[in-house]
Amino acid sequence: MSEKTKGQKLQKELAYKKTNYYEVADEAERQAIFGYAKGYMAFLDAAKTEREACAFAVAAAREKGFTEYRFGDPLRPGDKRYFVNRGKSAVVFRVGTKNPEEDGFRIIASHIDAPRIDIKQNPLYEDGGMAFFKTHYYGGIKKYQWTAIPLALHGVVVLKDGKKVEIRVGEREGDPVFYINDLLPHLGQEQMGGKASAVIDGEQLNVLVGGLPYDDKEVSDKIKLNVLDVLHREYGIGEEDFLSAELSAVPAFGARDVGFDRALIGAYGHDDRVCAYPALTAVVNNETEHTVLAMLVDKEEIGSEGTTGIQCKVYEDLMEEIALALGANFRKVRFASKCLSSDVTAAYDPNFAGVYEKMNAAMLSCGTSMCKFTGSRGKSGSNDANAEFVGEVRSMFAREGVIWQTSELGKVDAGGGGTVAKFIANLNIDTVDLGVPVISMHAPWEIVSKADVYSNYKAFLAFMK
After folding, report:
1. What is the pTM of this model?
2. CATH no. for 116-251
3. Averaged in consecutive runs of 10 residues, what is the pLDDT profile of the chain (465 residues)?
């Protein structure tokens, strides 16, 4: 045997190299990848807000025989249940046969909210022959990306009598769409001379909603009045009803294949529905001897606060209720539990290579990506999973043939980001981040690889076994 051959053998045995999933997938596996992507893309089009994603999850669970759980309900091994929190988050879970004090719970935590443009509580005004909604953006966005694109309006309006009206305009063929104006380049010299963060001010993200005057010469603000007339005729809404409304402007485009080879998916809301959908489908479609929970939570993009964010005590209460119903000591259950905090990570982009450390960046199509730590700069705000748990998850993936990779979110001092991991870890539950790499994260249209979506699903299956 030549020295070169020995070296090649040694390199194969000892060196680490990321694997492009498409390169090693046989024809059957590729068909599975592309087939799974179709279901995911349908989910994206149906669930552009956390309310819609929650409703989708409940419908999918009910279709598979899951029933609603309420605090105090009895539970026994084999039960399939779901818990809904205020219509904006859901926990879908299976009760396993293993002793929860020894085995704990297997938790997959993802978020179903995404950056968007929220409508203010007193939004409607007229100026310059147009009617607009005032807005307040939600989550970390580049504001200039949200101008000059078609927008749809989603949400609910609660009327004075308590009736809830659902709004979803701009998605169907023939629907009107909405729009945020931008400045023409001919007059944009001063605008383009500033920082990108100041190209569009937050108070300039006004959504264009009308331009037709009401036919009455005796009234003022005719265009605003005409919009109010349309809203009242179609939805029974008056201007005061915006005070108790949750309305959001989201991109009106649907999920599409990207590239001649259709290997990628372009869509709004990959962050983090690209992890929520695999979590949901893994739990509803597959039996397991462990007690498993898919937590699909809200408010991650603004710090996981409030009654539907992961910091709300209701999720801990739910886990405690499950433990008590099974006759288990909850402290012992927590200590034995394990969690995959499944949120997206930044995919390496050669067009912006300067902000990545390539050796430790997630590569597109190389599988779901484990982030031992997130946070920013000196790992601030990070869970930083321990090596023992990372090793345990590695072993799970190796046994089940999961193609995966490791990554961190950009160069050490380039910025950073956070997930729900630290909040679950604070309950004394071993937790590590695992999610799909994304190009153009937080843009109105983001890109992922179909291979990575399917890899994420397979990783959850391995975790549940």
Report:
1. 0.96
2. 2.30.250.10
3. 75 92 97 98 98 98 98 97 98 98 98 98 98 98 97 97 97 97 95 90 97 96 98 97 98 98 98 98 97 98 96 98 98 98 97 95 98 89 94 97 94 88 96 97 98 98 97
**Using CA atoms, how far apart are residues 426 and 315, in angstroms rounded to an integer?**
13
Domain ranges of the chain: 14-114+268-464, 116-251
Q: CB–CB of 454/37 below 8 Å?
A: yes
54-82: string of b/e by CB count within 10 Å (b at 16+)? bbbbbebbeeeebeebeeeeebeeebbbb
Residue 433 CB coordination number (10 Å): 30
Residue 111 host element (H or E) = strand 105-111
- Alpha helices, H only, 343-431: 387-400, 421-425
The CATH homologous superfamily for domain 14-114+268-464 is: Zn peptidases (3.40.630.10)
Phi, psi of 371 (to 5 degrees): -110, 105
Distance CA 323, CA 319 (A): 6
Strand pairing report for 345-346 and 437-438 = parallel
